[in-house]
Amino acid sequence: MAPAGASRAQAALLFNPVPHVLESPVMRRAAILLFSFLLIAPQSFAADAWTSVRSKNFLLVGDASERDIRRIAETLEQFREAVGRLLPRRTAASPVGTTVVVFRNDASFRPFKPLYQGKPGNVAGFFQGGEEMNFIALTAGEDAPRVVFHEYVHLLTTDSVAYTPAWFREGIAEYYSTFEAVRPDRVRVGRRIGEHLLQLKENGLLPLHVLLAVDRDSPHYNEIDKQGAFYAQSWAFVHFLLAGDGGKWQPRLPVFLNLLAQGRSIEDAVQDAFQMSTAALERRVEQYIYAASSWPTTEYTFTDRLVFEKEMTTETLSEAEVQFYLGDLLLHCGRLEEAEAHLRKALELNSKLAPAQAAMGMLRVRQQREAEALPYLKQAAESGSASYLVHYYYAQVLKQQAGKTSDADILLTTMQRELKRALDLAPHFAPAVETLAYVNLMRREELNETVALLRNVLKASPGRESAMMMLAQVLIQLRERDEATAILQRIAASTTVEPAIKQHARSLLASIGLSEILPPKPLNEPARTSNIEPVSPPPASPSTSSPSDDAGRSGRNALQRIDPVPPPVEGETVTGVLTEVDCSKGLTLSVNTGAAVVKLHTPAPSKIEFVSFTKAVTGTLSCGALRSGGVPVRVTYRPGPSQGILGEPLVVAFIEKN
After folding, report:
1. Position 495 in a domain
2. Residue 388 vs residues 357, 392, 393, 423: alpha-carbon distances, Å
């Protein structure tokens, strides 16, 4: 939930010359996108000439001149290279692509600007992050605003650095947000940020041990009245470490981060990395901030500038392609009605334009009209499209459909094929690797190949937590429990990981014995699909969860164990004995906690995730009262306001009695 004053903080990000104020973590990655926007008429762009320029790491499209678009492409490549001088891994290919929309002037960009007090604001540009695609939108006649560089640094550091405490994430992003080109072959970073210095001089400094201890749950990271001091001091501290004392401390920064990642205390990590106490370091930083008459900057010279130019390719876009890119931008910004107008126009002009078909399919998914989404995506994928996203999107929608059919194995086979096509087209596209790993886990096949793919992702992006979590699950299936445990313990102990991911890691650690219950699949065993829900009723056999005879005669197969371990969810937990499963009007679970019998209810049983950590429950669970006193469970639930109902069950884990 966004903190109070969020909209004001968002506005400050965009509108010049209002001082730059950083967003809260809840707003990050969508900081500039939650405004109401003006309605865009898709036909208004029909007569404009649009060009696409593809550089090494960016796809740029726009109605600006080719010269201007290529200049912006070069600037962005230089910026990425400058960050790479500090974070060498960022010279590798990005795991997720970035599309840059370059408008020729303010009038062209104006229909896409956010509203501020009912009017289009003075917006220089914005950044939209996404799991499968990132977008930058700006005008050709203006320098890229600081917020674009700030957010792109977040994108680079999130995956490239295995341990990124809050002060480092925000400090390094602000440090590089001052990027500027001083000559065609030279750029500068690190200039002073006036509003941050004003904040520090007027309000003073946080104690250094407080700054270094801030995490995602800290008031200084989330409360609007405390964020200013945290962001300003994070910038100043990182500036000191990178440029202070002639750059003396820069080589010690990665040492310091590694010590913190190993779980060392702040005091010990400071002493070992900088050979001084935290108090002494605090005095050095304070002197740097208050005593410096000028702040040192860092310049980078690019001797291989022509390489950027040679790697660029240029094409003229058709009107249908223009409408697609505008619609896709709006789709990723959550402006679905306006996106649909542009995508419809694109398909009217070229009904076989695969990227537009795929985008329309994903639009239908966002609109919760999945049945209409599948034909668009199927046609796009089967057209032989060279767009990796077409095949990835198709696989994603099939994943949703797999839980609603008894032909799940057929869908998994198709998903596997489409994801491999996506990776043939974009070998470094991490989301496709992770989804393919999920499919292979479900099918219990190609697991060694899957480990290799995930290791390649983590080699380029060691901080990518989703890849680490998937690798741990595959290693569990392969009985490589020591390495899986090490990965999960590191994630569970981290102070920088999202709470939901930490909870998932803890769940996997609790289930580390699952590989003993579920041995590896023999090579001649057919692919398993029983872990996709709902599943057709099993062959007649006694239920391992011992339902009552009456429930068994009902023939209703309400629940099916799911593995691998389900995705992370946030909620409260209750532990006890499941004594009854009532399948009327949805699903109601009765759990005896020892102190009382509590009830949990959901109107949508198919949304519950079931997993078993015990040999006693390996089959199905039927409706009715359970014999033998019931089955021990741990239920993760979302608290609800209904009287007599504890909440809505999200995950039901069957556990050992002790």
Report:
1. no
2. 13, 6, 9, 7
